[in-house]
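Let's sit down with a protein and look at its sequence and fold side by side. We need material for that, and I hope you will provide a protein of your own picking. Once you have written the record down, we can walk along the chain together.

***
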Amino acid sequence: MTDPDRSTAGGLMRRYRKGLGLTRNGLACRTTTMASDFIKKIEDGQRIGRRSVAIALARALELDPWQTDEFLYVAGHAPAVDWQQVAYDIHLLPDPYQTFKERTESYYRDQEEESHATPAPEAAAPGA
């Protein structure tokens, strides 16, 4: 029998949110761009349209790479990590667990840096 909390993005999000002891408003505050009524709509079954929204929610819920990919999958989006390539690569290495952990942490660190990157300020024109 399938656990209903794990079969939809809203159910999974509710499960992780409650696991952290967060209210809908608390989760909304962590995302900084979403309102609690939007969180409620997702938990009630509204589809998460954009992948970037699903990733922002995964970060706010402090999901690890496995949980993030499960969340993305039930939300209808591609996983963040190419698990087949990772499995192939680590199969060839002497310490697969450490390599896998380093690669996934590096991937998510790079994603975080990209999402927070700010454009460089433009230089003032001479004589302005």
